[in-house]
Each structure stands twice: as C-alpha cells, then as structure tokens.
Write a structure and sequence with these properties.
Structural class: alpha/beta
Shape: elongated
Largest sheet: 7 strands, mixed
Strand order of the largest sheet: 5-6-9-8-10-7-11
Number of strands: 11
Distance between the termini: 47 Å
Strand content: 5-15%
Number of helices: 10
Order of helices and strands: HEHHEEHHEEEHEHEEHEHEH
Radius of gyration: 24 Å
Helix content: 25-40%
C-alpha cells in the first residue's frame, strides 16, 4: 500500500514538472517571467509563437531580455461556464477578432470545454517606435525591467512638429522625422527622447530606456550635458505650448505617463525629479530654475504648459496632478 502511494505521488509530481505553461488549463495569467538562460527564440518555441510576434506584443525594441522581465505570451484556454469571447479577450489582453482568427472560428458562439488558443494583441509599431494608449503603456512599464537608474524626468515640448503637423495618423512619420533631425542634423546617436506624447493621447517609445537621452540640456557643453542626462529620462510632448492649447487627451496622457514613471522609478514629484527645459542654461548646462534672466534659456515646455513654465507653475499646477494620479493608479493595483 505504501509503495503504491509513493508511486502515485511520484506520477503526479512528474506530470506537473513536465506540464508546459502553454498548455496549463485556464492559466489565470498569460504572463511569463524571464528566468536565467532565457532568450526570445527559446520562449517563442515554448509558446508556439515567433520572436517577431513576442517583440510586437511586448513592445521590445531589442532582443535583449532581463531576468525578472515579464512577457505576455499566447496560451491555451479551456472554456468554462459563463465565458464569452469578449470576456476572454479582456482577461488576456487580446481581441475577439484575434481569438477567432487563431482558432478558425466563424462565429462568436463557444461551448464549455472547448479549447482555444489566446494570442495577446500586438502593439502598433514601426521599427524601434511603438505607439500605445495610456492603458497599454501602464501594462508595458510595469512589465519591464531596466538596468539604468533614473532620478529625473525631463519635460519638453517639440515646438516643431506642432499641432499643425499632426493629422491624427502620422505618429510614426513624425517620430522618424525627429530621429532624422537628431541623427543627421544634430549628429546624435539616435532620437533624443525616450517618450513622445501626441495630441490624441497616445504615447510612443523612442530611445531605449536604458540609454540616457542625448542633447536635451547643455547643448554646447557636452561634458556637463552627459552628466545631467546620465540619470534622466526625456519626454517630448508634441505641440508648441507657447501658442497652442493642449488637448484634454494629451494633458491626461502627460499626467498619467509621468505618474507611472514616478512609480516605476520610486520617485515623488518635486523640482528635483520632474524638471522643465526652461530651467537650464542651454550653453553651460547650469540649472537656473526661475533665475533665467541673462542666461541662454528656452521657454520649453511652454508658457502654457500646465499654467506656465516656472517652478511655481509646476508646484501648483502639475505636480499635484501627478501625485493624485499616482495614488489613483496605486489604488487600482491593490
């Protein structure tokens, strides 16, 4: 009897050890956490997908993975009572059309016990640039692992391209135009900024987060500039906020994205952690804050950026909104 019991325990243990997560019945999370020895091709093979699909699903700008990084992956799911395609798609960041296509379904009717492959939806991208909604960026930022310490977020406006340049669908064209100017015109190694927000409320990845921004402050003193930017992350907000009125959608995105970055990097909104381009002498790299008279300064991020570009405007009109959003986000995660 004892021998049979031990054999049963061994058999059950063996089954669990060899059960690939892609076939785990009703896996509550379609998220895989990167482990030592993992690489994209290996993970793609395990989950019956491709490296390119994994990169598009997860907004990966390179093939490099970091231990602890979380990736959304396709899973197999068994339908339970109460399920609908819409409900399943919402639970696993997919869409009804994607699920139907992956399983050859011609209608929305599903039955209990039916097995479905659930592919996560892909992010919109062109080359290194990924375009996201606020919710997609929230999911992305908390799944990422970064090796570079970030201590301050730089806020800029583009001036050009302005609102007049944006037609609602040319996000990638504008991103590529900025990159070409930065690389060919300014002789920088890549597009300067990590993030770009648009008037429609979307946000795009640009320069990889683990690479410091380039050319954002102290343009004529490269040594000082690189020191300032070493722990910085730059956001370019499309628009000329000296003359143009920011849309409600972009306003909400700037607040939300900044709040998410504060949470990700363990920061609180202050003059030290959220800095405006206007507060720095662009020749020397000196931080002059509101004492810019007699210095070479820009109005960036604009005289109309959340009430102005002064430290008082930031403290009274921007930081409190970021702090409030941080608390709202934390409340949804508890």
């Amino acid at each position: 009897m004892k021998k049979n019991l031990m054999l049963l325990i061994f058999t059950i243990t063996f089954m669990f050890i060899n059960l690939s997560p892609v076939y785990a019945q009703n896996n509550p999370r379609n998220i895989y956490e990167v482990k030592p020895g993992d690489y994209l091709w290996k993970i793609a093979q395990t989950y019956e997908t491709t490296v390119q699909d994994l990169k598009q699903i997860n907004g990966l700008q390179t093939d490099i993975l970091i231990i602890g990084q979380k990736l959304r992956v396709p899973i197999n799911y068994e339908v339970v009572p109460g399920d609908t395609l819409w409900k399943i798609s919402q639970n696993f960041t997919s869409t009804v059309s994607l699920i139907k296509s992956a399983n050859g379904l011609t209608w929305d009717i599903i039955i209990v016990g039916q097995k479905l492959k659930i592919p996560p939806k892909k992010l919109r991208n062109q080359g290194q640039f990924f375009l996201m909604t606020r919710e997609e960026f929230k999911d992305w930022i908390f799944n990422q692992k970064f090796t570079r310490r970030v201590g301050k977020i730089q806020q800029h406006h583009t001036y050009q391209p302005s609102y007049q340049s944006f037609n609602g669908v040319n996000h990638f064209m504008l991103m590529q135009g900025m990159k070409e100017y930065h690389v060919s015109g300014m002789k920088w190694s890549d597009i300067s900024q990590q993030l770009t927000t648009f008037p429609d409320g979307t946000v795009a990845l640009g320069r990889p987060f683990n690479t410091p921004p380039e050319g954002s402050f102290g343009l004529l003193n490269e040594t000082v500039m690189h020191e300032i930017e070493k722990d910085a992350l730059a956001i370019e907000n499309v628009g000329n906020f000296d003359a143009e009125h920011m849309t409600a959608e972009q306003r909400e995105t700037i607040i939300t994205v900044t709040a998410l970055l504060m949470l990700k990097y363990g920061l609180q909104p202050t003059v030290e952690t959220i800095t405006y381009h206007h507060w720095w002498d662009i020749n020397t790299g000196e931080r002059v804050l509101d004492a810019g008279h007699g210095h070479a300064i820009k109005t960036c991020p604009g005289t109309g950026f959340f009430g102005g570009n002064s430290t008082d405007a930031a403290k009274n009109n921007f930081y409190p909104l970021v702090d409030k959003k941080m608390h709202e986000i934390l409340a949804t995660m508890q």
